[in-house]
Amino acid sequence: MAEPGVAEVADLLAKTKVEQVNEVSFKGRGLKLDKAEDAAEIVQAVEECKDLQALRLEGNTVGVEAARVIAAALEKHPEFERALWSDMFTGRLRSEIPPSLESLGGAVISANAHLVELDLSDNAFGPDGVKACRGLLTSKAVYTLEMLKLNNNGLGVGGGQILSEALIECHTASSAEGKPLALKVFISGRNRLENPGAKALSKAFKIIGTLEEVSMPQNGIQHQGITALAEAFSENKNLRVVNLNDNIFTEKGAESMAKALPNMTNVEVINFGDCLLRSGGAEAIAKVISSNQYLKELILSYNEIRKDAAISVAEAVEGKEHLKKLDLNGNQLGEEGIEELSGTLEAFDMVDVLASLSDDEGDDIDDEDDEEGVGEEEEEEGEAVDDPELQVRGTAITPTRENQSPLKPNETEDLTEVMGKLALS
Asked: Which of 235, 267, 325, 415 has its CA 20 to 30 A from that of 344?
């Protein structure tokens, strides 16, 4: 192959965009910043930086007073774009974190800055932390936000709902000014959002409609929440990465997601590993995956998928020239199933995309384990059942004052006398 000429190289360079970010970083310094004077080094660095686009405080621990003086320095930087504030409250009391977040968020607003990225991951602040960020998340400072990372924050159901409300309010306000919030990346794993949190965020996702990456692993989301997310994903036509690893789809959730996949024509990475899809769910996804021509990774590992369903998945990826990884590890294929799966992909000249199957569970699992309903969630808490046929009726057996003892008075005295003699013998 001939080497590219000067003109070709120039053309390649012209198409290559290298973004330089002026960043002040104290990442991993392990600084304990309690008082204002403890933060003097950071304050000085922020004040001296002429074009501060990013401030990274990851791997330190920031107290209320320290946050206040850092915020004061940050107020002088309208060019500020990236708040990289993950893992910066280690060892802090839960009550210390909200005022610190309010100070820093307020500084961004006062500076008239326009954020592109906000990363608050690995800060255990729960719903109170989201409340403290609400002012920032509904302000003009985030009308330009593209990346929101809230991984491992202990948000819970309440935090997810507060976050959703803030995002919807921000989108409404920014749209009124002709520049609607166009969020591209949303990351919120390990937050126990569960069904109510997932449903709330789905409403925001539907309204925003510009998402390109959604990562929400390990959130205890069951099929009702998965269905809500699937409907929201259908409204985000530019989705490229979907990571819902380690939630609880079951076949019902998989069928809902299968309905959405044909609308996600630009998707490149699908991670539904460890989601209890089972064979029925895998079959549902296999039937529609042909519409996703740009697919690079399909992860369906640890899903109790049997041989025939795994073969269906393999047949569904035939001809996908962009596919680099098909992960079916940790399922229930057995030796024969592994051979058939490999043979199927080899016939397509695609065996190289198959990930390791070293954790396969074998095909001798009892069929009863595959029955639909195992792992299904119970009805959501708070739903009343009014059907009289389903109500439990009966008589209480708790003793009352009148019948507190099943023994008559003279029998009680006799028993007491016997027990006393036993104790003395």
From this structure: 267
- Are 204 and 235 in contact, with CB atoms under 8 Å apart? no
Q: How far is CA 9 from the centre of its chain?
A: 41
Asked if residue 334 lies in contact with residue 364, where contact means CB atoms within 8 angstroms, the answer is yes
109 or 401, greater pLDDT: 109
Residue 330, exposed/middle/buried by CB under 10 A (0-12, 13-18, 19+)?
A: buried
If 0-12 CB within 10 Å is exposed, 13-18 middle and 19+ buried, where does residue 395 land?
A: exposed
DSSP state of 369: G
The answer to whether residue 366 scores a pLDDT higher than 80 is: no
Q: What is the 3-state secondary structure (H, E, C) of 168-204?
A: HHHHHHHHHCCCCCCCCEEECCCCCCHHHHHHHHHHH
Confidence of residue 384 (pLDDT cuts 50, 70, 90): very low
Total residues found in the chain within this entry: 425
- Distance, CA of 138 to CA of 162 (rounded, Å): 11
CB atoms within 10 A of CB 405: 9
Concatenated DSSP letters of 92-140: --TTTHHHHHHHHHHHHHHTT---SEEE-TT---HHHHHHHHHHHHTSG
Candidates 219, 190, 162, 220; CA nearest to 378 is 220
Mean pLDDT of the chain: 87
Mean per-residue pLDDT for 171-199?
Answer: 98
What distance in Å separates the CA atoms of residue 180 and residue 208, rounded to the nearest whole number?
Answer: 8
Listed residue (309, 356, 318, 374) closest to 337, CA to CA: 309
- DSSP-based three-state secondary structure for 278: helix
Of 63, 115, 86, 108, the residue nearest 190 (C-alpha): 86
Q: How many CA atoms lie less than 13 Å away from 213 in the CB half-sphere?
A: 11
Whether residue 334 contacts residue 363, with contact meaning beta carbons closer than 8 Å, is answered with yes
pLDDT surpasses 90 at 337: yes
Cα separation, 243 vs 218, whole angstroms? 10
Distance separating alpha carbons of residues 169 and 74, to the nearest angstrom: 25
pTM score above 0.85:
no
Rounded Cα distance, 71 and 56, in Å: 13
